[in-house]
Write a structure and sequence with these properties.
The complex is a heterodimer of chains A (796) and B (230). Chain A is of the alpha+beta class and 796 residues long. Chain A folds into four domains: 1-54 and 261-397, no CATH class; 67-234, no CATH class; 409-453 and 652-796, no CATH class; 454-651, no CATH class. In chain A, helix 2 (14-49) packs across helix 10 (299-337) and helix 14 (418-451) packs antiparallel against helix 20. In chain B, 48% of the residues are buried. Classes of the chains: A alpha+beta (796), B alpha/beta (230). Chains A and B meet through helix 13, helix 21 and helix 25 of A and helix 2 and helix 3 of B. The structure holds adenosine-5'-triphosphate (ATP) and magnesium ion (MG). Magnesium ion is lined by residues 44-45, 163 of chain B.
Chain lengths: 796, 230
């Protein structure tokens, strides 16, 4: 073998090679799996949910009072590229996600009996068990995967109670029970109900009519183009499968964008580890380099060679890591995803792309550090065997050194090795940061949301289960007569008119409530709301008063128009059939729970707008008598809720909000366990390398009479000390960042959150603990093999 | 008084067995300077490791006063090196991130201000008064070995074991270090492996070892007495 080949060093130094290889494998395995899992858990189900439109495009003509413009249908039918146009509508349900609390919208298609056969043929789907829905029956067929996800089989009931049902209305229609009549054998996730049934069913009368447009084979692009350019206009909404997919991806981008820094940070932390290991190995190899340099090899050549050595090894580690990740993820797929009906494509460009920076960062950092080391090489000194110790270049400044009384204190080693200390602190910190970033964004979002629930602090809500339905008059009577009730305030079903943006990607409903004028005055007094600017809505006008938080959050001013599809009040604002004008802004209440979330529009006005669909007996706010809030809520939740009505109380909403955040954090906890293992691995290697370099010290201490236990305890003390400091520093840094976030971004946006919540900080612990535990184990192992005599007997 | 009785140490080296120490019985009285001589590989270091409790013998027994090593726990035997013994190696083996003074302060069981004062005085006596806060790599070879000697002496041991302490030093420095060690005999005993006849001249006893056995004990003092009598 050529003695100067890139491999020779590693062939002869198997331990160094093994450490580098293992590090490369671990970081790749960790990052690939992390990204693939995040994709599989958060994005893939959403893609799966729109699969039903993969063979078709959606054309939705806007309806007027006379229905839609029939010429649109005609235009579609005469196009020779189009094979078929079938009418359809949909019920949006929620498919549960992979983790608790997570769900994805999925559309059950309503199809006429005569069209179902054609539709299934286009998707190469066949009935596997049972039969197709009967015309006009509340029956449902599902593809096998979808049935698995919903955990239903032929003959089972499936109750539709979706939240995001129609036009962003807050509550679903009254639950409808469908019977699963058949299961489809299909590669595409499908759910089909009888359109005849939907058409004749009160609850679904208002569903938009849509057409599913099927292109002839080979004409898909032409049809897409035709739909986009000729059909899509103000009166018709067109969605091609590509547009739907793009939307799914676009919605996933913020989350993935948050993942990128995590991946980069972890890759960077690992490359620091690798760079350090290399540097220490290079110090041992300085004579080799010195001699090579003295015999005429340029420093550049040496730097290149070293970088190549490391890069090739990292690439090998990367390749093995990818293969291993494939194995691990295949296991996860069969045991977790496939078993529950979820598609999990772990072989995908995304995790692959995310894992590439590992090599680049490691190669880059290696190149940088080696060239830095080499500029300092003095070949003469090396050949003469001087200045070979690891940190001799790191002369301590004379005046700062004061001999310590107890030189074996845990602080001494790290105080005297500031670079190592910095490295350990920064790598630990980076890994902690990577995770806490996620947790805090959730916790912050949940906190900020609470701010917009506090309108419920002095009232509770009772509404019909179908939002558009009238409240039962007997229920209304029960409420009015109840001894705890002071006043009953009817309000219009709350449409999605305005929402609050909570960075980085949460939002809260900020829509105003439609109430009668005297109730409005009453509520303003009850909560002590004060106008900061403008005036309260005049009854019967499209005026709107909003909270200062919302105004600041969306940068809204008096006179701004909300609902205009052409000129949205803020990017992404919902477009409405009816516009509203901001007439007033409340001052932000100083005290918490004082109605920060309130905003009002005139119920007198809404009643005259058919689009807003105010039922005969609308939902009600219930104001309790003084001191009776708890009694009222108990009665509402425990007794009135039995009457087929929805009860909303402050405590329930807050608990639910907290619960959602908790569930999200739980899934992050799972991610963190994976990351903690990877981080612990990297940091343990670092610690191990540092420690094994100190063999001489331990051997000498042992020869001087220190027991193994004493030395071990001291070493663990040192590790605990440094990891503890790393943790402390990072917590402080993070606290500073959080405070900055609160006052720099959230407060100006009219939002707030609590800094001193315990749980998110808890998430900073697993990584340090994992590092400590694994360092303890490796150190123990090393000590069981420590042979003091071979150390002191070594002739140097 | 340290006594060895039929002390034996064998190493398994693959299939063959190496007897590094073979049936050695010697006695080290208090305040004695014992020199150990012998060719390379004869078992000198092994004997020191056995006597200091670093290694366990395969046969025989060692007594410190009346206490047998075999009756002590490993912890107690280790403890002896921190209280009763000091060790100086051929190489200085100072801890490279600790200053000279700190390297000395590693030895005392309970480091205290008093020890610190003493350690400073000690190093000053060794001519290192202005180099207390230097790191080992900022000291010369002789200076490092002097710090190592100070480390072996600070806790006032009864016996110092020195394994070729001057082997890597030039003659003058070697003599300086040896004089230091020699002076220790006022407090306790010194057992030194050395090839330096200049040093051995002052020894009370010179034990020569060959193939793990004591081949000769030269009782210098007796010799002197004999001379006086005749
Ligand atoms: N760990 C070991 N395993 C096997 N054999 C050993 C071991 N240590 C020492 N020996 C052998 O024991 C014998 C005595 O070794 P020792 O180191 O005590 O000799 P020494 O007299 O100190 O030699 P030197 O003057 O070279 O230091 C030698 O033959 C050596 O090869
Ligand atoms: Mg020896």
């Amino acid at each position: 073998m050529n003695p100067l080949s890139i491999w020779i060093y590693y062939v002869r130094n198997k331990q160094h090679a093994a450490i580098l290889l293992a590090t490369g494998i671990m970081v790749t395995l960790g990052i690939y799996s992390l990204v693939a899992l995040v994709w599989g858990v958060f994005v893939e189900p959403a893609r799966q949910a729109i699969h039903a439109y993969s063979e078709t495009s959606l054309v939705t003509p806007k309806t007027t009072n006379n229905g839609f413009d029939p010429s649109i249908l005609l235009k579609l039918q005469v196009n020779t590229d189009i094979e078929n146009v079938i009418p359809s509508t949909y019920i949006r349900i929620e498919l549960p996600g992979m983790i608790p609390g997570q769900g994805f919208p999925f559309e059950l298609l309503g199809l006429y009996e005569g069209d179902i056969a054609y539709f299934l043929e286009r998707y190469s789907a066949t009935i596997k068990t049972g039969r197709l829905p009967q015309s006009g029956a509340a029956e449902l067929v599902l593809s096998e995967d979808t049935a698995n996800i919903l955990n239903v089989d032929v003959g089972d009931e499936y109750i539709v109670t979706s939240s995001e049902f129609y036009k962003g209305m807050e509550a679903p229609p009254a639950p409808t029970t469908f019977i699963v009549s058949g299961i489809l054998d299909s590669n595409t996730e499908l759910g089909i109900v009888s359109l005849e049934f939907l058409n004749h069913h009160e609850e679904y009368r208002q569903l938009a009519d849509r057409f599913l447009v099927f292109a002839k084979e080979g004409k898909e692009v032409a049809v897409d183009e035709f739909l986009r350019s000729e059909i899509r206009n103000l009166e018709t909404d067109v969605r091609t499968y590509q547009m739907l997919s793009e939307r799914v991806i676009n919605e996933a981008i913020p989350g993935l964008a948050l993942l990128l820094p995590v991946v980069l940070l972890v890759a960077f932390a690992f490359s620091l580890v690798i760079a350090t290991i290399n540097k220490m190995a290079n110090v041992q190899r300085l004579p080799e380099f010195g001699i090579l340099h003295a015999t005429g090899y340029s420093k550049r050549w040496l730097v290149h060679r070293l970088t190549m050595e490391t890069t090739i090894l990292t690439m090998a580690g990367w390749a093995v890591g990818i293969v291993l990740a494939g194995g691990v993820l295949q296991l996860v797929k069969t045991s977790l995803f496939a078993a529950r009906g979820f598609v999990f494509n772990y072989v995908s460009w995304l995790p692959f792309t995310f894992s590439i920076p590992i090599i680049l960062i490691i190669a880059g950092l290696t190149y940088w550090t080696t060239s830095k080391t080499f500029t300092r090489i003095d070949p003469v000194a090396i050949v003469e065997q001087r200045s070979m110790s690891q940190e001799t270049d790191q002369k301590h400044s004379r005046d700062s050194i004061e001999s310590q009384l107890k030189p074996l204190n845990p602080s001494i080693f790290y105080l005297r090795h500031p670079r190592r200390t910095l490295l350990l602190i920064s790598t630990t910190g980076i890994m902690i940061m990577a995770i806490v970033l996620f947790v805090f964004s959730l916790s912050i979002g949940s906190d900020a949301k609470e701010l917009f629930l506090d309108y419920l602090s002095h009232v509770s809500i009772v509404r019909s289960q179908g939002m558009a339905n009238s409240l039962d008059s007997s229920v209304l009577a029960l409420v009015k007569d109840h001894p705890t009730v002071e006043r009953v305030i009817p309000y219009a079903p709350r449409y999605n008119i305005l929402n609050v943006y909570i960075p980085p990607f949460a939002s809260a409903n900020g829509s105003p409530f439609g109430v009668y004028h005297d109730d409005l005055i009453y509520l303003v007094e009850l909560y002590g709301l004060e106008l900061k600017e403008g005036q309260l809505p005049h009854p019967g006008t499209n005026d709107m008063v909003i909270s200062e938080s919302l105004a600041r959050n969306r940068d809204l001013k008096i006179g701004d128009v909300v609902g205009d599809p052409e000129q949205p009040a803020y990017p992404g604002a919902p477009s409405l059939d009816q516009e509203f004008v901001i007439s007033g802004i409340f001052s932000q209440p100083v005290e918490p729970e004082t109605g920060n979330g309130w905003g009002f529009i005139s119920l007198e006005f809404l009643e005259n707008q058919s689009a807003f669909n105010v039922p005969d007996i609308p939902p009600i706010f219930i104001v309790p008598k003084e001191g009776q809030k708890e009694n009222l809520d108990n009665w509402l939740e425990n007794e009135l809720a039995q009457q087929n009505v929805s009860v909303v109380t402050y405590r329930k909403e807050i608990a639910q909000n907290k619960n959602t955040a908790r569930q999200g954090m739980f899934s992050i906890a799972l991610l963190e366990i994976g990351l903690a293992v990877v981080a612990a691995f990297g940091l343990t290697i670092l610690n191990y390398v540092f420690t094994s370099e100190r063999q001489m010290e331990f051997g000498v201490l042992y020869a001087l009479g220190f027991g193994r236990h004493q030395i071990l305890r001291r070493l663990l003390g040192e590790t605990t000390y440094i990891i503890g400091i790393a943790w402390g520093i990072n917590v402080l840094l993070f606290l500073a960042a959080i405070v900055g976030l609160l006052f720099g971004i959230f407060k100006p946006m009219g939002l707030t959150f609590s800094i001193f919540k315990f749980t998110p900080w808890l998430y900073t612990l697993p990584i340090p603990i994992a590092v400590l535990a694994s360092s303890a184990l490796t150190t123990l192992r090393m000590f069981s093999k420590l042979d003091a005599i071979s150390i002191v007997d070594r002739r140097l | 008084m340290l006594q060895t009785e039929n002390l034996t140490l064998t190493y398994k080296d693959g299939d063959s067995i190496v007897t590094a120490v073979n049936n050695i019985s010697i006695t080290i009285q208090d305040h004695q300077f014992i020199g150990i001589l012998g060719p390379s590989g004869s078992g000198k270091s092994s004997l020191l490791y056995l006597m200091s409790g670093l290694r366990q013998p395969t046969g025989g027994e060692i007594f410190l006063d009346d206490r047998a090593y075999s009756k002590m726990s490993e912890k107690d035997r280790n403890g002896l090196r921190r209280t009763e013994y000091g060790f100086v190696f051929q190489h200085h083996f100072l801890i490279n991130y600790m200053t000279a003074l700190e390297n000395v302060m590693v030895s005392p069981i309970a480091p205290s201000k008093a020890y610190m004062v003493q350690a400073k005085a000690f190093l000053a006596d060794l001519g290192l008064g202005d180099k207390l806060h230097r790191f080992p790599y900022e000291l010369s070879g002789g200076e490092r070995q002097r710090v190592a000697v100070a480390r072996a002496m600070i806790h006032r041991p009864r016996i110092i074991f020195a394994d070729e302490p001057t082997g890597l030093l030039d003659r003058t420095t070697g003599l300086q270090v040896m004089a230091l060690l020699r002076s220790f005999c006022k407090q306790g005993s010194l057992v030194a492996v050395t090839h330096n006849p200049e040093i051995l001249a002052e020894a009370d006893q010179v034990i020569t070892i060959r193939d793990g056995r004591v081949s000769d004990i030269d009782y210098r003092l007796m010799h002197d007495l004999k001379e006086m009598i005749s």
